[in-house]
Amino acid sequence: MKLKLLLLFSVLFCFSADAQIKKQLIVPSTGHTGKSQTKIILPGESNTNNSICEQGLNLTKVSWSSTKLSELRRGIKILSVDLQNTPNWFETKLDVTARSSESKFKFSDKIKANLEQSEPNIEFEVLSNHVDELGIKHFQLIETYKGIPIYGSEYNVHEYLDGKLLVSGNFKKPILENGNINVSSIDAEQIVISQLKKENISFFATSNLAKLGVQQNKLQYYFSQQKNLWYLIHEIKIMPNPSTNLTFLIDASTGEVIDQFSNICKIHTNCNHEHNTTVNPEGHESATALDLFGISRTINVWKEGATYFMLDGNRSMFSLTNSKLPDEPAGGILTLDAKNTAFNENDFRVSQVTSSNNQWSNATAVSAHYNGGKAYEYFKNVHSRNSIDGKGGSIISIINVRDENGAKMDNAFWNGEAMFYGNGDQAFTSLAKALDVAGHEMSHGVIQNTANLTYQGESGAINESFADIFGAMIDRDDWKMGEDVVVRTYFPSGALRDLSNPNNGGRSTDQYWQPKHVSEQYKGSQDNGGVHINSGITNHAFYLFVQELAKTRSEEASKTIAEKVYYRALTNYLSRSSQFKDLRIAVETAASDLHGNTDVLAAVKKAFDAVGIGGSGGSTGGTNYQKDLVTNPGKELILCTDQTQIGVYTFDPSNGAVVQLSSKKTISKPSVTDNGSHIFFVADDNKLYVLTLNRSTGVYAESVADSDPFYRNAIVSKDGKRIAGLSKTADNLIYVYDFGLQVFTEFKLYNPTYSQGVNAGNVQYADFMDFDHSGQYIMYDALSEITKSDGTKYEYWDIGFINVFNSATNKYGDGKVEKLFSDLEENSSIGNPVFSKNSPYIITFDYYVESNTSASYAVLAANIETGDLGEIKSGRTQTGYPNYNLRDNTLLYDGADSNGENIYIIGATSSKIMGSGSETNLIREAKWGTWFGNGNRSLQVNTKEFDFINEMTCSPNPFTETIELQVQSTKSEKVNISIYDILGKLQYTTVLYLQEGKNSKTLSLQQLNSGNYQLVIHSEKGLSATRIIKN
Predict the structure, then answer these.
(1) Options 284, 532, 773, 1018, the catalytic residue
(2) Known active-site residue 441
(3) What radius of gyration do the chain's Cα atoms show?
(4) What's the CA angle centered on 1003, arms 1001 and 1008, to 5 degrees?
(5) What is the pTM of this model?
(6) Residues 336-373 pLDDT 10s
(7) Structural domain of residue 981, as residue ranges?
(8) CA–centroid distance for 695 within its chain
(9) Is 54 a catalytic site residue?
(10) The one catalytic residue among 441, 464, 563, 850
């Protein structure tokens, strides 16, 4: 789960020249001649600690979106962003004063502010609104530019009872070279008619069962992804004949047909559609008749005079006074017969299905009529929906329809007005037999009248998927579609589609195959961008949602929950251009509305994870990089300087004891190895000094590590094997020295970009650095300069990772740079980053944002594997140089009061990236604090726990002379046993040959002194550790 930021910046501070992520650095820009190849000298004991393993982690690529930081500045919680990193799902709060304002103004201004859009020509117009059964208000908006709607830029705003707003949509800003209207709407219609003639599409003047002709003609702005251009277009929807419903996009400047696509869904081959309440018993009759299964069905019919019509007027939506019977019922369910005529013929007419004695031998008509009634009942009884259109509109079914060539129709479709059934040919038998097929097709009418999902690409696949889902819920005896009408020669699995197994027993080249995971997603242009193909992915998500629920309840009860969640998502949270990730958020939100944070919401997340939509991208596979180190077993100390940077000190938080280690003035933050054996710092003479621990006496001795007056800053790797330095002159280099290779190597810093057209600027110089736990990567901050299009320049600090060493080859690294943020927003900076002590995937850093009149600071933390961002402390007036303690449950950072600079501490939650509680002033008149321990531990950050050790115990614990180690293992394996004291010194070692099952070994440890120790079982395959105590 993405973690919510605890609070936003609460105070804006007056801007001054010092309001920046770094103090003004005195860095000469000339005179640099490079680092001389001096040897760094370490007196006393070895620089390396007693690491069990020395192989390091290959840091995964950090491809984090900078919009995470936008949450702080915009005052929103971002749930999703588009390709331009603009929030397209976010949560915010509606100001109390705005809650009574007109929706048109309060939402338009609020969305523009949250999206940081000041363009005066952009507005958001409210199209419709309603209040649902939970009291949540739902508003549908359209973005306009200069008063003209933008195609595909719909917004949904949901106002909750506590004032929270959930906003979703696709922001677009038209950029046109030619926005002239040279082609009128009437001319555009003529262009469409000419195009129809070119394509030999029949155009009827009239029809007795559909409103033919132009259904819609709208002037809109449209962005063509294929041509990467903006257009001002006429969107024309037209139904030239009962079987054809098309959308044309006509360039209003040139008359060019920019795009065209079908709005008709056919159950097979290649669906988005166009599409009073009194019970009137007069004329109503019931009948019993056999359907295509040979099953006796009870159906509702209508009697006019001596004739019975296959018209159901016994539903609450039926209005006798508004009806012209029998041909034009208002709110009726009507079945008609095409008498085996082709739907594209000018003389295409349908006939009433009648009986003189209320006996019905037409099994096809009985099935179609029964299907219409079942579809109505489903949406009415389960979802309280008044017919397909939600307004009590009639449901019309037409049987015995031939295809456009006059041949048997191997298909069924809904044209937005009526349901058309063919009698089958080669791949199908009579389509009217299949309730799920009818449910699927008629559900498209529901979709059209709610989310109105565009019938292209992912939105079209969602459209198809909802139709399949509702079809499966109307005919809910299995998860297959069309199983009652398919011919096995064409569909060997016995089904057209299968929600439980979209691959449907086939291969990707088979017409009945669908993908069940985004890794199999079709990316081509056929089938309107794969609407019938890729719907398998989202179909499977619904199936898995039900199955996850069914672990604790019946499948029928699970279906009841799931169908209501999906209907709510469709009717309230999806819009015309919704994509797969939008579907996930919509379904999660609907589940949360109806059931809160329960197993229902968890089941949704698990289902979408399993098909690769959002989340972790799947419940299986992948690598878990979130492995933690064993906590340093030594004594916990804090390394710091005084507030004037004169002297290096250690502070003991357990008793407040302060020990001065050096009297020299430092010019950058001192750096210490993981076991505290060596402390490096740069003094004001620009030389590198080292403090070396004598473990026998516990005293540090100071010496010159490098007498070359070259340095501005230097750090040591956690294992003590490498030094990295920065030159006192301004350059974009980091200089690394490996004690084994005994040579300096330069690494050039640069700004890689991952977004086309993004200019990240040139790196001026780095300032703060931290080695990762493996000693192979350096995390650093650097100042970069960007020249904008108007010629002006601005500077910013950001964070990068650079590979400086390869432990596998024992050679220097390739210098590849990764950035924490790919395109940090203007006037924002981040810096002073450091890794947590035990979690190589957790970092903390300073954040700063400025405007012309104000500035804000915060200490933030992040999980660089999941992309989660947390807030440790906001509302600050300066940078903090934050640092974690040995257990990663507390952080320290610099601050100030009226008496000067101090070091403060604050708690952290279990996630390690969120602050907890209030801050405390720990060390007065001090700065640049670093927590460290003086014990040894493994720094192998890619170590995983043994997958074959289920349990490890030591007893008795505490012990006096001997201790029994018990290990439960699932395989035979040779492992090493090592015991370390609190200072990390190896005190005992032996070998254990594990056998499958329970293993015991008695360790004689009389030679150990009383105290705390760490017992570690390790091999090249992993390690397990526990703490033992000797009395």
Answers:
(1) 532
(2) yes
(3) 35
(4) 165
(5) 0.56
(6) 999 998 876 666 778 999 999 999 999 999 999 999 99
(7) 949-1030
(8) 50
(9) no
(10) 441
